[in-house]
Specification:
The protein folds into 2 domains: 6-200, Jelly Rolls (Sandwich), CATH 2.60.120.10; 209-294, Arc Repressor Mutant, subunit A (Orthogonal Bundle). 35% of the residues lie in helices and 21% in strands. The protein contains 11 helices and 11 strands. Helix 3 runs antiparallel to helix 4 (186-200), helix 7 (235-241) crosses helix 8 and helix 9 packs antiparallel against helix 11.
């Protein structure tokens, strides 16, 4: 049986929870700044970061994070901020930037809030949601994705999830919310489909996870580590399985992922569920054994 690619294994094993948490009606001219790191524990108590998505229900807008480059989106597109980085967002015309926290009441909310902002011109409607995950795919240290990106979805399951999310948000705006949150599987299913669409035709990056997932040496090596993280791997053994030399394997990990095979597997194991770590305390999940097993 063929070993699943790291990408498919990562997507199929995602553990997510989330909610569609507010609607926004912006009119030209408008622009805001969102301090997501500050907002994360407000939106979801205890969370250090959140995965944020914005579905464009009508109109046109842009989002910028990280390098500051603007990513444009139109109706049906999904803007994703996978690591909860602070970001700015705006419309077609220049506008004074305001703080998002000044535009909305803080949770908890009795009904889904509808944020309205702008100068009264052409309107852009957004459905905003968050997801929370401790999965390594969303570890900002690994950076599998850009800090912000837009997915233009073709007709198919993902596009239908977008429409369903919009309809759901519209249907509950005037109703009382459940006591805990507007939790639903829609955000989870939507994000998985959006990530599939994004990575299906993503350009090969010069470094990082995207490059690793496409790398003929790293992809099969990572797939084996992900499939058997509890195995007593050695660099030589892993190199043999992917038919390269130990030095070539080590060089590829360092040049593409910026870390040795030792460090990569250590980080992957440390991100596994707390229950697994506790259950296997003292065996090969212990970091003191990792270095002995994997050291060259």
């Amino acid at each position: 049986m063929a070993t699943p690619t790291p990408l498919l294994a990562a997507l199929e094993g995602l553990r997510l929870d989330g909610a569609i948490f507010f609607r926004a009606e912006f009119t030209e001219n408008w622009e805001f700044e969102s301090p997501l790191r500050e907002m994360a524990p407000v939106i979801r108590p205890g969370a250090e970061r959140l995965i944020i998505f914005h579905i464009v229900a009508a109109g046109r807008c842009w989002v910028a994070a990280g390098d500051g480059g603007r990513h444009w989106a139109s109706r049906g597109d999904v803007l994703v901020l996978p690591y909860g980085d602070d970001y700015t967002m705006g419309g077609s015309a220049p506008a004074d930037r305001v703080q998002l926290l000044n535009l909305m009441a803080r949770p908890p909310w009795a009904t889904m809030p509808v944020l309205s902002h702008g100068a009264g011109g052409e309107r852009t409607d957004i459905v905003c949601g968050y997801l929370h995950s401790e999965d390594p795919l969303f570890d900002p240290n690994l950076r599998a994705f850009p800090p912000a990106f837009v997915v233009h979805l073709p007709d198919g399951p993902a596009a239908r999830w977008v429409e369903s999310s919009i309809e759901y948000a519209l249907s509950i705006t005037d109703r009382s919310l459940p006591e805990q949150a507007v939790s639903t599987r829609l955000p989870e299913l939507l994000l998985i489909e959006v990530l599939r669409a994004h990575l299906a035709d993503a350009p090969v990056a010069d470094h990082g996870w995207i490059a690793a997932l496409r790398d003929p040496v790293l992809a099969p090596a990572m797939a084996r580590l992900h499939a058997r993280p509890d195995r007593k791997w050695t660099v030589a053994g892993l190199a043999t399985e992917v038919a390269v030399s130990r030095s070539a394997l080590d060089d590829r990990f360092r040049s593409v992922l910026g870390r040795s095979p030792i460090r990569y597997l250590t980080e992957w194991r440390m991100h596994l569920s707390a229950a697994t770590l506790v259950e296997h305390e003292g065996d090969v999940f212990g970091e003191h054994q990792l270095v002995d097993v994997l050291s060259p």
